Amino acid sequence: MIELDHVSAGYDGTDIVRDVSLALPKGELTALIGPNGSGKSTLLKAMAGLLPASGGILYDGVPLCSLKREERAKLVSFLPQQRDVPDIRARTLVEHGRYPHLGFSKKLGEKDRVLVDRAVALTHTEGLMEHPMAALSGGERQRVYLAMLLAQDCGYLLLDEPLTYLDIGAQLETLSLIRELRALGKTVVMAIHDLPQAFSFADSVCLLQRGEAVCFGPPDDPAWPERAGAVFGVRIAASGGDGLFSYTLAGIRGAGMDGKESHNG
Amino acid sequence: MNTCCKPSTPKPTARHRKGLVWLLAAVTLLLFLLNLAAGASDVSLTDVMRFLSGQPVPDTVRTVLLHIRLPRALSCVLCGGALAVSGLLLQAALGNSLASPSTIGVNAGAGFFALLAAALFPYNEPARAAGLLLGALLVAGAMYLVAKKASATRLTIVLAGVAVSSLFSAGMDAIVTIRPETLLDKAAFSIGGFSSVSLSRLPPALLYMLPGFLGAALLAPRLNILLLGDETAASLGLDVRRCRVLSLCCAAFLAAGAVSVCGLLGFVGLIVPHMLRAAEKDVPGLVPLCGLGGAALVSLCDLIARTAFAPFELPVGILLSFLGAPFFLYLILHKKRGRLS
After folding, report:
1. CATH number, domain with residue B34
2. Could you say which DSSP state residue A240 is in?
3. Do the domain assignments include residue B18?
4. Of B4, B225, B281, which has the smallest distance from its Cβ to A96's Cβ?
5. Any domain includes A67
6. Which one, out of A47, B51, B264, B338, has a CA that is 20 to 30 A from the CA of B135?
7. What is the count of structural domains for chain A?
8. What digits encode the pLDDT tens for the residues A54-92?
């Protein structure tokens, strides 16, 4: 269970996320949606302990700020959105997931190798391990990063737009892998741009607007199309059953809707 | 180290890395012995071996080896290793493939403050040593602040390094002009070389180098994590700022130690980590490789500088600049992104 209690966070003293209170149930996949600049990334970074935040952030009742860095890294893992591709082999990257668990000398032990192998098997990346990261496709790279997060062995996974820049096949592949992680008992919070994917894959959806959480609930709530449509400035029609959507533009978005925030994601 | 595979699968990289370490160690040892044997007065390799194993050798040979060649050959190994590892640390900590103690001005800072200390407190060795370290740390700290600015690119840091170097070199000129007795051979100092080394210079230099080498070995696995990017590194529990600051401090210690012996010897810290990174990406693996590679490169250059134009001797810094400056240009022009790769 992740509890956010009046959380505000931002950069250089300017709050991007304002007064967010949420309770995200354990073992669920939560999708964070919202227009550009609505604070999805900022909220995730604050939840990962990478940004100073006011208010309370609690994991299973334990305040995040009371944990040491390495304790925190054993509890919560975070996948940033934009990453330079490091010039290392895929296996080395997955092994780096064990970093918070290693002793002072930072050498891998037998147990670490077993966990790395298991993470690799779960993400179906066995065939990629000896390749340099730069030689992999976007989808393969994302799977290797998820293997690193699995090797980190945290109960909580925070993913910042893990589908960006992937082709549709790789997006669906990554999404189904994320579902498998949830099936392993991981609690996943994921920022995502694609509304149909958010509503069809997540257990609950949280809508952010200008740094505030304006709506939170299960994806099958019939009120979602109207609420989300109003925030994104579109008309959303749910065309039958399983998360099938169509959008039409509801006129040019006003300044109030678009927001003045330039911060990405 | 982080290249392990399942026990059953072969480990080509691990074996290959060990092989490279042994190869470089053998080359360094060979060059060290050649440096003892080569020079104006005739000393045979047999004499060198007898001298090193403590057997009696003729007095003249003993004097030459003990007071001239041994300090020089040891200095080449130590300074080469220190400068190369310092460059490795600077490159990894700043995430900038163009960083090295000479290109970002750490050497110049150490040199200037050492001269300043010598001018203010003549014949006071501790003051000179403190000046060396203070100067190196100041410049490394300044470059950390420059790199922290979000708008700073890798070239910004190098340009800032050029500016800092010019400033300190003007400062050194000023001191030498006003107080010529502080530096007997200014040209030799600013070019960098080993013609005036003595055995007594080595222990104080080691006092700076040993903590630097030790720190490099301890920080190396952490720098591996830093190379994943600040956010990923922080999410894995690394204290990103502390890792960076400590790495820069160790780099400054190593550079200060080297400058105290051989003056402002340039480009070793740039060339060596680059060449070895082609064979090894892992920072813990690179630390011993760079140490040996730097020792081998400087030993080789000094051997050439002493023998190629005998009886004249070229300061080794000139040779290294002939190698290093074109290499630097190549890096600026061809490695556009300048990340460590």
Report:
1. 1.10.3470.10
2. S
3. yes
4. B225
5. yes
6. B338
7. 1
8. 888 999 989 988 999 999 999 999 999 877 788 888 999
pLDDT in tens, A131-184: 999 898 888 899 999 999 999 999 999 999 999 888 888 888 899 899 988 998
Asked if the C-beta of B185 comes within 8 angstroms of chain A's C-beta atoms, the answer is no
Tell me if chain B has a CB within 8 Å of the CB of A141. Answer: no
CB pair distance less than 8 Å for B222 and A106: yes
Boundaries of domain holding B89: 13-334
Q: Chain B contacts of A77, Cβ < 8 Å? A: 235
Flag if A50 and B231 touch (Cβ within 8 Å): yes
Domain count for chain B: 1
B118 located within any domain = yes
Domain contains A51: yes
Radius of gyration of chain B (CA): 20
pLDDT tens per residue across span B17-69:
788 999 999 999 999 999 988 877 778 888 888 888 888 888 888 888 888 89
- Sign, CA torsion A73/A76/A80/A83: positive
The answer to whether B297 and B84 have CB atoms below 8 angstroms apart is yes
First to last CA, chain B: 19
Q: Is A48 on the interface with B (CB under 8 A)?
A: yes
Q: Does A92 sit within 8 Å of B3, measured CB to CB?
A: yes
Q: Given an 8 Å threshold on Cβ–Cβ distance, is B236 in contact with A74?
A: no
Which chain B residue has the Cα nearest residue A69?
Answer: B237
Q: What is the pTM of this model?
A: 0.88
Domain for residue A123, yes or no?
Answer: yes
Q: What share of chain A is helix, strand, coil (3-state, %, to 5)?
A: 35, 30, 35
A219–chain B Cβ distance below 8 A for any pair: no
Average pLDDT, chain B: 87
Q: Which CATH number covers residue A214?
A: 3.40.50.300
Query: What are the angstrom distances between the C-alpha of B117 and each of B32, B171, B228?
Result: 33, 12, 41
> Nearest residue on chain B to A118, judged by CA atoms?
B6
Confirm or reject contact between A98 and chain B (CB < 8 A). Answer: no
Chain B residues 192-251 within an 8 A CB cutoff of chain A? 221-222, 224-225, 227-229, 231-232, 234-239
Asked whether residue B310 carries a pLDDT value surpassing 80, the answer given is no
Contacts of B282 in chain A (CB under 8 A): 88, 92
Q: Is residue A264 part of a domain?
A: no
